[in-house]
Amino acid sequence: MSGRALLMWDDAVTGYDFGPGHPMDPVRLGLTRELVSALGLDRAVEVRAARPAGDSTLRLVHREDYIAAVRAASADPRHADQAYGLGTVDDPAFTGMHEASARIAGLSVGAAEAVWRGDTHRAVNFTGGLHHAMPGAAAGFCVYNDAALAIARLLELGAERVAYLDVDVHHGDGVQAVFQDDPRVLTISVHEHPRTLFPGTGWPEETGGPGAGAGSAVNLALPAGTGDAGWLRAFHAVVPELLADFRPQVLVTQHGADTHFEDPLAHLAVSLDAQRAVQLACRGLADEYVEGGRWLALGGGGYAVVDVVPRSWAHLVAIVAGADVPPETLVPEEWRSIVYARTRQPGPRRMTDGRWPVTWRAWEDGYDPEDRLDQAVLATRRAVFPLRGLLVHP
Question: Quick one: which pathway (predicted)?
């Protein structure tokens, strides 16, 4: 097995562009790639492209009629069919939509294949993590569900246990929907409570399908306003025990940067430093509980496209590569010049929000019945832990 991690990248991914004014601005991808290079991380990873996902791969998750509808809208956006979620405010059709979406999916599937066959034990595709796309519809800025496709390909290759961990501010509804009846896949989503945020799903009581799927979905719905200490307390109160029990052969993680306090579309108050802490935790969990340490990390949401997304995902690339960037690191001036040239905004000056090291109170230190965060954690543990033979209380 190679010691070098893979960074999946193709310049053409910036063609995934819903148009001016849309929150999913592809500049966030280009700026992240430029920051990775400016920090010297290209020397720590193997940068690799992959073929766009073909129809046979897309059909592992998506219906044939939906793929045809995406192709039609891609060739002529006037043909977008809203019955498939295309041509909507969230997912406006654009020329080349199928090709750009299939390219992102191909990068995630290619990364999964490389990790499974032993080319490397870690790979990252920050252009991926499009977790809202359903088998037969686009949703939430997502056309093809690359995360689900990567997992489906792993299963096709023979994986018997794949864990999917989603820390985007939004519920990972599309991935859950695809695998909720499949006990080979454990989906864990840590997100803002569905009462206050799209897509309105991800309640603790959503624990997978009946029968064999019972306990295959885990949803940790956090109160709006949750900050660093609460977010990390919740994560560590649920995720490690589940992974220790499940012992996946591959861990797939989704790292939407939209939990950040500057994100314009959500209501959590998490810092870049706490996001980095969870990225480090994911690496540690993969090393401890995953067969061969196999880890595929994906991007996701994130709409503070200059101040937050590039720094968060550059840290993710560094952590996957084992070449961690210290939080106090100055952002290279060459990158800040690129930021200004492309956006007319000043770039951030350091790779931190000034909150490192981030501390939190462990779940084992005691449950506070008056605390809404603790209530949320207990709701999740009560809903799913017994289904997996785990104790509700520490």
Answer: Ketone degradation; acetoin degradation
